[in-house]
Amino acid sequence: MTGPRPLPAINDIVPYKGGEKPKHAGGHKLSSNENPLGCSPAARAALIAAADGLEVYPDGGAFELRSAIAETYGLDKDRIIVGAGSDEIFQLLGRAYLSPGDEIIQTEHGFLVYRLVAQQAGAKTISAPETELTTSVDAILERVTERTRIIFLANPNNPTGTYLPYEEIQRLHAGLREDILLVLDGAYAEFVRRNDFSAGVELAGSAPNVLMTRTFSKIHGLAALRVGWGYGPSSVIEALHKVRGPFNVSGPGQAAATAAIRDRGFIDASADHNAAELTRLTETVSELGFEVVPSVANFALIRFTSPEEAQAMDAFTRERGIVLRRLEAYGLPACLRLSVGTMDANDAVIAAFEEFERR
After folding, report:
1. Which sign does the torsion angle of CA 73, 229, 79, 205 carry?
2. Which of 3, 68, 148, 297 is exposed most, by the fewest CB atoms within 10 A?
3. Is residue 273 domain-shared with residue 242, that is, in the same domain?
4. β-strand partners of 105
5. What is this structure's pTM?
6. Which residues contact 216 (CB under 8 A, 6 or more apart)?
7. What's residue 1's pLDDT?
8. In a domain, 10, yes or no
9. Which of 206, 230, 262 is at the close of a domain?
């Protein structure tokens, strides 16, 4: 007996694997781009208070959270959708807009979840080559076909840490048909300090085919609660509401996220810490002779001379309780991704790189 069989497209899916943790207490997990400062004290207090109502279903419309997001960014709350992380919003897009035989386009080293969304729908993923590990608008536009339905673009990109300036995003959008949805994934947008950067609020607010997504997992430090949001045209938001679950974000998650987005002090402190420590890590590791790709996010991509050297460094840091992210799955076997950690964690990383270089 063979039992029920899944859809053919499901058989080829390789599930996404998150960053690993140190095997021993006292180690440093620098593999998942988490906030080393934790989360907002106000968010933690809101989460604890929400425990008094665990028997009650959450607000299926996430009214308070959408209102807080709208107030923060000056948006129309009716054009905001909340999901269990931005990952769920990508999944909803697959349900609403992809059919077998359709195509999505992502960059060569784009976030792995986009490909999974396509596979689940029986759609094909087209990878556009990058230029020096940076998105190429021309490469994307050259790969658009009559079957293209969605273009997923992480800006800044994970795992490279590079970004496209807003004028390039505008050029990309101008080259697309109106029936192609441009998804701007701004998971790391709050960390960027560049005058020519935009997360895409303007385009998502004015174009009929642009959706911007954000997450509470990174700068807000709420990765465990799985909360994300998207903003775009009413037609897209309405379609996503039709395919989402009625209670897709927990009540405690909504309460914590509402408090988190209003805690400007914690957000600024997190961004300041990241800016200072990313600079310190980049400069120090570069001075030791390792190639560090310039990053605007809360992590750095380190490129080694060979996959073997990257694997040796991975083993070396693990022996010292430090876990970085290996990137074979992203087509970058000679690279490791280093998340910005606490000052102590970053000190430990620097010491490990110094020791490895002296061998």
Report:
1. positive
2. 3
3. no
4. 126, 151
5. 0.94
6. 222, 225, 227, 228, 229, 256, 257, 260, 261
7. 58
8. no
9. 262
- Tokens 């961004």 correspond to 271
Do 243 and 309 fall into the same domain?
no
114 phi and psi angles, rounded to 5 deg: -60, -45
Within 216-342, where are the H helices? 234-243, 251-262, 264-287, 307-319
Inter-CA distances, 352 with 9, 49, 225, Å: 43, 42, 32
The C-alpha atoms of residue 270 and residue 191 are separated, in whole angstroms, by 8
Examine residue 6 and state whether it is found in any structural domain, yes or no.
no
Tokens read off for 226: 């799985």
Place of tokens 């995003």: 169
Q: What are the pLDDT digits (tens) for 181-216?
A: 999 999 999 999 999 999 999 999 999 999 999 999
User: Of 190, 339, 161, which Cα lies nearest the Cα of 267?
Assistant: 190
Range of the domain at 230: 41-262
Residue 359 to residues 170, 253, 307: CA-CA distances in angstroms?
48, 47, 18
Encode pLDDT of 248-268 as tens digits.
Answer: 999 999 999 999 999 999 999
Q: Total domain count for the chain?
A: 2
What Cα–Cα distance (Å) separates residue 295 from each residue in 162, 184, 188, 324? 5, 18, 11, 16
Same structural domain, 282 and 189: no
Q: Which of 149, 157, 118, 113 is nearest to 236 (CA)?
A: 149
Contact indicator for 105, 67 with CB cutoff of 8 Å? no
Best CA proximity match to 205, nearest among 236, 231, 173: 231
* CATH number for the domain harbouring residue 48: 3.40.640.10
CA–CA dist 133, 292 (Å, integer): 12
CATH, residue 319: 3.90.1150.10
**Residue that the structure tokens 């080293």 belong to:** 109
CA-to-CA dists, residue 39 to 18, 214, 261, angstroms: 20, 16, 11
